Amino acid sequence: QKEQCVDRFAMELEQSRNLSNTIVHIDMDAFYAAVEMRDNPELKDKPIAVGSMSMLSTSNYHARRFGVRAAMPGFIARRLCPQLIIVPPNFDKYRAVSKEVKEILADYDPNFMAMSLDEAYLNITKHLEERQNWPEDKRRYFIKMGSSVENDNPGKEVNKLSEHERSISPLLFEESPSDVPPPGDPFQVNFEEQNNPQILQNSVVFGTSAQEVVKEIRFRIEQKTTLTASAGIAPNTMLAKVCSDKNKPNGQYQILPNRQAVMDFIKDLPIRKVSGIGKVTEKMLKALGIITCTELYQQRALLSLLFSETSWHYFLHISLGLGSTHLTRDGERKSMSVERTFSEINKAEEQYSLCQELCSELAQDLQKERLKKKYLPLLRNC
DNA sequence: GCGGATCAC
DNA sequence: TATGGTGATCCGC
Protein backbone atom coordinates (compact mmCIF):
# COMPACT_ATOMS: atom_id res chain seq x y z
CA GLN A 1 0.00 0.00 0.00
CA LYS A 2 2.82 2.37 0.94
CA GLU A 3 4.61 1.17 -2.16
CA GLN A 4 1.69 2.28 -4.31
CA CYS A 5 1.63 5.62 -2.56
CA VAL A 6 5.33 6.12 -3.34
CA ASP A 7 4.96 5.10 -6.98
CA ARG A 8 1.92 7.31 -7.45
CA PHE A 9 3.89 10.23 -6.02
CA ALA A 10 6.82 9.42 -8.33
CA MET A 11 4.45 9.46 -11.29
CA GLU A 12 3.03 12.82 -10.26
CA LEU A 13 6.53 14.21 -9.98
CA GLU A 14 7.33 12.86 -13.42
CA GLN A 15 4.18 14.50 -14.79
CA SER A 16 5.14 17.84 -13.36
CA ARG A 17 8.69 17.74 -14.68
CA ASN A 18 9.55 21.19 -15.97
CA LEU A 19 12.27 21.48 -18.60
CA SER A 20 11.39 24.97 -19.81
CA ASN A 21 13.86 26.92 -17.68
CA THR A 22 17.57 27.41 -18.25
CA ILE A 23 19.37 27.57 -14.93
CA VAL A 24 23.06 28.41 -14.68
CA HIS A 25 25.35 27.83 -11.74
CA ILE A 26 28.50 29.97 -11.74
CA ASP A 27 31.42 29.00 -9.56
CA MET A 28 34.66 31.00 -9.38
CA ASP A 29 37.71 28.74 -9.55
CA ALA A 30 39.64 28.49 -6.24
CA PHE A 31 38.36 32.00 -5.64
CA TYR A 32 40.29 33.35 -2.65
CA ALA A 33 43.51 31.65 -3.74
CA ALA A 34 43.09 32.92 -7.29
CA VAL A 35 42.69 36.51 -6.09
CA GLU A 36 45.83 36.24 -3.97
CA MET A 37 47.82 34.79 -6.87
CA ARG A 38 46.55 37.46 -9.22
CA ASP A 39 47.75 40.22 -6.91
CA ASN A 40 51.04 38.68 -5.90
CA PRO A 41 53.07 37.14 -8.75
CA GLU A 42 55.44 35.64 -6.18
CA LEU A 43 52.72 33.09 -5.51
CA LYS A 44 52.07 32.25 -9.16
CA ASP A 45 53.52 28.77 -9.46
CA LYS A 46 53.65 27.81 -5.82
CA PRO A 47 51.24 25.74 -3.78
CA ILE A 48 49.19 28.15 -1.70
CA ALA A 49 46.15 28.16 0.54
CA VAL A 50 44.09 30.95 2.06
CA GLY A 51 43.36 30.70 5.76
CA SER A 52 45.29 30.09 8.95
CA MET A 53 47.17 27.31 10.70
CA SER A 54 43.86 26.20 12.20
CA MET A 55 41.65 26.40 9.13
CA LEU A 56 41.99 26.78 5.35
CA SER A 57 39.26 28.36 3.26
CA THR A 58 40.61 27.23 -0.08
CA SER A 59 43.75 26.13 -1.88
CA ASN A 60 45.04 26.56 -5.40
CA TYR A 61 45.23 23.63 -7.80
CA HIS A 62 48.97 23.24 -7.29
CA ALA A 63 48.35 22.66 -3.56
CA ARG A 64 45.44 20.32 -4.25
CA ARG A 65 47.85 17.93 -5.91
CA PHE A 66 49.33 17.43 -2.44
CA GLY A 67 45.90 16.71 -0.98
CA VAL A 68 45.51 20.19 0.49
CA ARG A 69 41.79 20.98 0.58
CA ALA A 70 39.37 23.60 1.81
CA ALA A 71 38.19 23.11 5.40
CA MET A 72 41.49 21.47 6.30
CA PRO A 73 43.54 22.76 9.24
CA GLY A 74 46.65 24.55 8.04
CA PHE A 75 49.05 22.56 10.19
CA ILE A 76 47.79 19.31 8.69
CA ALA A 77 48.13 20.78 5.20
CA ARG A 78 51.72 21.73 6.03
CA ARG A 79 52.50 18.11 6.79
CA LEU A 80 51.13 17.08 3.40
CA CYS A 81 52.95 19.91 1.66
CA PRO A 82 55.83 21.51 3.59
CA GLN A 83 56.36 24.22 0.92
CA LEU A 84 52.72 25.29 1.24
CA ILE A 85 52.33 29.06 1.54
CA ILE A 86 49.45 30.00 3.79
CA VAL A 87 48.04 33.44 3.04
CA PRO A 88 45.78 35.15 5.59
CA PRO A 89 42.38 36.00 4.07
CA ASN A 90 41.52 39.49 2.77
CA PHE A 91 37.75 39.35 2.85
CA ASP A 92 37.28 43.00 1.94
CA LYS A 93 39.15 42.40 -1.28
CA TYR A 94 37.17 39.24 -2.07
CA ARG A 95 33.96 41.15 -1.48
CA ALA A 96 35.08 43.84 -3.91
CA VAL A 97 35.96 41.32 -6.62
CA SER A 98 32.70 39.48 -5.97
CA LYS A 99 30.83 42.72 -6.53
CA GLU A 100 32.49 43.14 -9.92
CA VAL A 101 31.37 39.65 -10.92
CA LYS A 102 27.84 40.25 -9.69
CA GLU A 103 27.54 43.35 -11.87
CA ILE A 104 28.07 41.10 -14.88
CA LEU A 105 25.66 38.43 -13.68
CA ALA A 106 22.90 41.01 -13.22
CA ASP A 107 22.94 41.66 -16.99
CA TYR A 108 21.69 38.13 -17.58
CA ASP A 109 19.37 37.76 -14.61
CA PRO A 110 18.65 40.78 -12.42
CA ASN A 111 17.13 38.33 -9.98
CA PHE A 112 20.20 36.05 -9.70
CA MET A 113 20.84 34.33 -6.38
CA ALA A 114 24.26 34.66 -4.77
CA MET A 115 25.08 31.72 -2.50
CA SER A 116 28.40 33.15 -1.33
CA LEU A 117 31.15 35.44 -2.58
CA ASP A 118 32.10 32.96 -5.29
CA GLU A 119 28.92 31.13 -6.27
CA ALA A 120 25.60 32.09 -7.79
CA TYR A 121 22.57 30.71 -9.61
CA LEU A 122 21.03 32.47 -12.60
CA ASN A 123 17.80 31.87 -14.46
CA ILE A 124 18.66 32.96 -18.00
CA THR A 125 15.39 31.81 -19.59
CA LYS A 126 14.19 35.35 -20.27
CA HIS A 127 17.58 36.55 -21.41
CA LEU A 128 17.73 33.70 -23.93
CA GLU A 129 14.35 34.63 -25.39
CA GLU A 130 15.28 38.26 -25.85
CA ARG A 131 18.69 37.38 -27.15
CA GLN A 132 17.35 35.37 -30.09
CA ASN A 133 16.77 38.52 -32.14
CA TRP A 134 19.75 40.48 -30.95
CA PRO A 135 22.04 41.72 -33.73
CA GLU A 136 25.64 40.57 -33.70
CA ASP A 137 26.91 43.88 -32.40
CA LYS A 138 24.96 43.46 -29.21
CA ARG A 139 26.77 40.18 -28.64
CA ARG A 140 30.22 41.48 -29.55
CA TYR A 141 32.92 42.02 -26.95
CA PHE A 142 36.33 43.53 -27.42
CA ILE A 143 39.27 41.63 -26.15
CA LYS A 144 41.49 43.37 -23.71
CA MET A 145 44.89 41.80 -24.02
CA GLY A 146 46.73 40.84 -20.87
CA SER A 147 48.88 43.87 -20.07
CA SER A 148 51.35 41.04 -19.83
CA VAL A 149 54.58 40.77 -17.98
CA GLU A 150 56.93 43.70 -18.66
CA ASN A 151 57.59 43.25 -22.31
CA ASP A 152 61.27 42.52 -22.66
CA ASN A 153 60.80 42.18 -26.41
CA PRO A 154 59.62 45.53 -27.78
CA GLY A 155 59.53 44.24 -31.32
CA LYS A 156 57.01 41.60 -30.39
CA GLU A 157 54.30 41.04 -32.94
CA VAL A 158 50.97 42.53 -32.02
CA ASN A 159 48.79 40.98 -34.64
CA LYS A 160 48.39 37.68 -32.91
CA LEU A 161 47.76 36.49 -29.42
CA SER A 162 50.91 35.65 -27.55
CA GLU A 163 51.30 32.49 -25.55
CA HIS A 164 50.64 34.59 -22.50
CA GLU A 165 47.32 35.76 -23.82
CA ARG A 166 46.39 32.24 -24.74
CA SER A 167 47.03 31.14 -21.23
CA ILE A 168 45.11 34.09 -19.86
CA SER A 169 42.06 33.26 -21.90
CA PRO A 170 41.92 29.57 -22.72
CA LEU A 171 38.16 30.07 -22.95
CA LEU A 172 38.62 31.49 -26.41
CA PHE A 173 40.39 28.39 -27.60
CA GLU A 174 38.83 25.63 -25.63
CA GLU A 175 37.08 22.86 -27.45
CA SER A 176 35.47 20.69 -24.91
CA PRO A 177 33.89 17.62 -26.50
CA SER A 178 30.77 18.00 -24.41
CA ASP A 179 30.47 21.55 -25.55
CA VAL A 180 29.52 21.49 -29.21
CA PRO A 181 28.26 24.77 -30.57
CA PRO A 182 24.92 24.30 -32.29
CA PRO A 183 24.99 24.35 -36.08
CA GLY A 184 24.54 27.74 -37.65
CA ASP A 185 25.63 29.30 -34.40
CA PRO A 186 29.36 29.37 -34.83
CA PHE A 187 31.63 30.89 -32.30
CA GLN A 188 33.66 33.47 -34.09
CA VAL A 189 36.67 35.55 -33.27
CA ASN A 190 37.27 38.64 -35.35
CA PHE A 191 40.57 40.41 -35.70
CA GLU A 192 40.00 43.89 -37.00
CA GLU A 193 42.57 46.48 -37.85
CA GLN A 194 41.91 50.03 -36.78
CA ASN A 195 43.25 53.24 -38.29
CA ASN A 196 46.57 52.79 -36.65
CA PRO A 197 48.00 49.64 -38.19
CA GLN A 198 50.08 49.08 -35.09
CA ILE A 199 47.06 48.91 -32.85
CA LEU A 200 44.71 46.05 -33.31
CA GLN A 201 41.25 45.83 -31.91
CA ASN A 202 40.21 42.21 -31.49
CA SER A 203 36.62 41.28 -30.88
CA VAL A 204 34.55 38.19 -30.18
CA VAL A 205 30.95 37.53 -31.09
CA PHE A 206 29.00 35.11 -28.95
CA GLY A 207 26.07 33.11 -30.27
CA THR A 208 22.53 32.90 -29.02
CA SER A 209 22.52 29.45 -27.38
CA ALA A 210 22.72 28.83 -23.65
CA GLN A 211 26.27 27.54 -24.04
CA GLU A 212 27.25 30.74 -25.82
CA VAL A 213 25.61 32.93 -23.19
CA VAL A 214 27.58 31.19 -20.48
CA LYS A 215 30.81 31.42 -22.47
CA GLU A 216 30.10 35.12 -22.75
CA ILE A 217 29.56 35.46 -19.01
CA ARG A 218 32.78 33.61 -18.26
CA PHE A 219 34.64 35.65 -20.88
CA ARG A 220 33.44 38.92 -19.35
CA ILE A 221 34.33 37.76 -15.83
CA GLU A 222 37.82 36.89 -16.96
CA GLN A 223 38.28 40.15 -18.86
CA LYS A 224 37.11 42.19 -15.92
CA THR A 225 38.81 40.37 -13.05
CA THR A 226 41.56 38.21 -14.60
CA LEU A 227 39.94 35.29 -12.80
CA THR A 228 38.30 32.23 -14.27
CA ALA A 229 34.95 30.68 -13.46
CA SER A 230 33.30 27.34 -14.12
CA ALA A 231 29.63 26.91 -14.92
CA GLY A 232 26.83 24.39 -15.17
CA ILE A 233 23.75 24.74 -17.38
CA ALA A 234 20.66 22.62 -16.74
CA PRO A 235 16.87 22.74 -16.41
CA ASN A 236 17.02 23.10 -12.61
CA THR A 237 19.33 24.25 -9.82
CA MET A 238 20.15 20.80 -8.49
CA LEU A 239 21.50 19.67 -11.85
CA ALA A 240 23.17 22.99 -12.69
CA LYS A 241 25.17 22.82 -9.48
CA VAL A 242 26.43 19.31 -10.21
CA CYS A 243 27.26 20.34 -13.78
CA SER A 244 29.43 23.26 -12.74
CA ASP A 245 31.74 20.74 -11.10
CA LYS A 246 32.08 18.58 -14.16
CA ASN A 247 34.57 20.62 -16.19
CA LYS A 248 36.20 22.53 -13.39
CA PRO A 249 38.41 24.54 -13.48
CA ASN A 250 37.65 27.06 -16.21
CA GLY A 251 35.08 24.92 -18.00
CA GLN A 252 31.37 24.49 -18.45
CA TYR A 253 28.89 21.70 -19.02
CA GLN A 254 25.27 21.55 -20.11
CA ILE A 255 22.53 19.02 -19.60
CA LEU A 256 20.17 19.53 -22.51
CA PRO A 257 16.53 20.14 -21.58
CA ASN A 258 15.06 16.76 -22.42
CA ARG A 259 14.16 13.89 -20.12
CA GLN A 260 16.61 11.43 -21.65
CA ALA A 261 19.58 13.74 -21.26
CA VAL A 262 18.68 14.30 -17.62
CA MET A 263 18.28 10.59 -16.93
CA ASP A 264 21.54 9.69 -18.69
CA PHE A 265 23.35 12.24 -16.56
CA ILE A 266 21.70 11.12 -13.33
CA LYS A 267 22.16 7.40 -13.88
CA ASP A 268 25.57 6.77 -12.30
CA LEU A 269 25.76 10.04 -10.38
CA PRO A 270 26.96 9.45 -6.79
CA ILE A 271 24.35 10.95 -4.48
CA ARG A 272 27.11 12.65 -2.48
CA LYS A 273 27.60 15.05 -5.38
CA VAL A 274 24.14 16.47 -4.79
CA SER A 275 23.88 19.60 -2.67
CA GLY A 276 22.06 18.64 0.52
CA ILE A 277 23.48 15.12 0.74
CA GLY A 278 26.31 15.39 3.22
CA LYS A 279 28.68 13.01 4.96
CA VAL A 280 26.09 11.59 7.34
CA THR A 281 23.34 11.02 4.78
CA GLU A 282 25.86 9.48 2.43
CA LYS A 283 26.87 6.99 5.11
CA MET A 284 23.29 6.10 6.02
CA LEU A 285 22.37 5.48 2.41
CA LYS A 286 25.58 3.60 1.76
CA ALA A 287 24.60 1.24 4.56
CA LEU A 288 21.51 0.47 2.49
CA GLY A 289 23.66 -0.18 -0.55
CA ILE A 290 22.77 3.15 -2.12
CA ILE A 291 25.58 5.03 -3.83
CA THR A 292 24.14 6.28 -7.09
CA CYS A 293 20.93 8.03 -8.08
CA THR A 294 19.69 4.92 -9.86
CA GLU A 295 20.03 2.95 -6.63
CA LEU A 296 18.31 5.77 -4.80
CA TYR A 297 15.33 5.41 -7.10
CA GLN A 298 15.28 1.62 -6.88
CA GLN A 299 15.13 1.75 -3.06
CA ARG A 300 12.37 4.40 -2.94
CA ALA A 301 9.88 2.10 -1.20
CA LEU A 302 12.36 1.16 1.54
CA LEU A 303 13.36 4.79 2.00
CA SER A 304 9.75 5.84 2.46
CA LEU A 305 9.60 3.46 5.45
CA LEU A 306 12.89 4.45 7.03
CA PHE A 307 12.89 8.21 6.60
CA SER A 308 10.58 11.12 7.28
CA GLU A 309 8.21 12.28 4.58
CA THR A 310 10.24 15.37 3.75
CA SER A 311 13.38 13.23 3.48
CA TRP A 312 12.05 10.59 1.13
CA HIS A 313 10.30 13.21 -0.97
CA TYR A 314 13.66 14.95 -1.27
CA PHE A 315 15.39 11.66 -2.18
CA LEU A 316 12.78 10.94 -4.81
CA HIS A 317 13.27 14.38 -6.37
CA ILE A 318 17.00 13.76 -6.62
CA SER A 319 16.62 10.28 -8.06
CA LEU A 320 14.41 11.68 -10.83
CA GLY A 321 16.77 14.55 -11.59
CA LEU A 322 14.31 17.15 -10.33
CA GLY A 323 15.08 20.45 -8.61
CA SER A 324 14.08 24.08 -8.35
CA THR A 325 13.22 25.70 -11.66
CA HIS A 326 12.90 29.21 -10.32
CA LEU A 327 15.11 31.22 -8.02
CA THR A 328 13.39 32.51 -4.93
CA ARG A 329 14.45 35.95 -3.77
CA ASP A 330 16.21 35.34 -0.48
CA GLY A 331 14.21 37.25 2.10
CA GLU A 332 15.21 38.78 5.37
CA ARG A 333 17.70 37.16 7.66
CA LYS A 334 15.98 34.96 10.22
CA SER A 335 18.67 34.66 12.85
CA MET A 336 21.97 36.09 13.97
CA SER A 337 24.61 34.34 16.03
CA VAL A 338 28.13 34.60 17.40
CA GLU A 339 30.23 31.63 18.37
CA ARG A 340 33.88 30.95 19.12
CA THR A 341 35.92 27.85 19.75
CA PHE A 342 37.72 28.19 23.07
CA SER A 343 41.07 26.69 23.86
CA GLU A 344 40.73 23.45 25.80
CA ILE A 345 41.66 24.44 29.30
CA ASN A 346 39.55 27.27 30.56
CA LYS A 347 38.59 28.15 34.04
CA ALA A 348 34.89 28.46 34.61
CA GLU A 349 35.50 32.06 35.57
CA GLU A 350 37.22 32.70 32.22
CA GLN A 351 34.50 30.96 30.25
CA TYR A 352 31.90 33.09 31.90
CA SER A 353 33.60 36.33 30.89
CA LEU A 354 34.09 35.01 27.33
CA CYS A 355 30.37 34.28 27.12
CA GLN A 356 29.70 37.80 28.28
CA GLU A 357 31.99 39.05 25.49
CA LEU A 358 30.05 37.06 22.91
CA CYS A 359 26.76 38.37 24.22
CA SER A 360 27.84 41.95 23.89
CA GLU A 361 29.22 41.28 20.38
CA LEU A 362 25.89 39.81 19.40
CA ALA A 363 24.07 42.75 20.94
CA GLN A 364 26.21 45.07 18.84
CA ASP A 365 25.50 43.10 15.67
CA LEU A 366 21.79 43.18 16.37
CA GLN A 367 22.01 46.91 16.96
CA LYS A 368 23.83 47.40 13.65
CA GLU A 369 21.15 45.44 11.82
CA ARG A 370 18.46 47.56 13.40
CA LEU A 371 20.27 50.74 12.39
CA LYS A 372 20.63 49.43 8.85
CA LYS A 373 16.91 48.79 8.63
CA LYS A 374 15.97 52.14 10.07
CA TYR A 375 18.38 54.49 8.37
CA LEU A 376 19.50 52.82 5.15
CA PRO A 377 16.20 53.47 3.37
CA LEU A 378 16.52 57.13 4.28
CA LEU A 379 20.05 57.28 2.91
CA ARG A 380 18.85 55.90 -0.38
CA ASN A 381 16.77 59.01 -0.94
CA CYS A 382 19.80 61.26 -0.66
C1' DG B 1 9.04 25.93 21.07
C1' DC B 2 13.65 24.27 21.90
C1' DG B 3 18.01 22.10 21.21
C1' DG B 4 20.68 18.76 18.65
C1' DA B 5 22.09 17.22 14.09
C1' DT B 6 23.02 18.02 9.52
C1' DC B 7 24.45 20.78 5.68
C1' DA B 8 26.47 24.46 2.69
C1' DC B 9 29.94 27.72 2.03
C1' DT C 1 50.75 25.06 19.22
C1' DA C 2 47.03 24.03 16.25
C1' DT C 3 40.46 21.18 13.39
C1' DG C 4 36.19 27.92 11.97
C1' DG C 5 32.07 30.73 11.90
C1' DT C 6 27.29 31.84 10.20
C1' DG C 7 22.78 30.81 8.83
C1' DA C 8 19.20 27.52 7.56
C1' DT C 9 16.38 23.48 8.10
C1' DC C 10 14.62 19.24 9.98
C1' DC C 11 13.40 16.26 13.70
C1' DG C 12 12.40 14.39 18.16
C1' DC C 13 10.96 15.62 22.34
UniProtKB/TrEMBL annotation:
Belongs to the DNA polymerase type-Y family. It catalyses: DNA(n) + a 2'-deoxyribonucleoside 5'-triphosphate = DNA(n+1) + diphosphate. The gene is POLK. It comes from Gorilla gorilla gorilla. SUPFAM superfamilies: DNA/RNA polymerases, Lesion bypass DNA polymerase (Y-family), little finger domain. PROSITE patterns: UMUC. Keywords: DNA damage, DNA repair, DNA replication, DNA-binding, DNA-directed DNA polymerase, Magnesium, Metal-binding, Mutator protein, Nucleotidyltransferase, Nucleus, Transferase, Zinc, Zinc-finger. GO terms for cellular component: nucleus. This is DNA polymerase kappa.
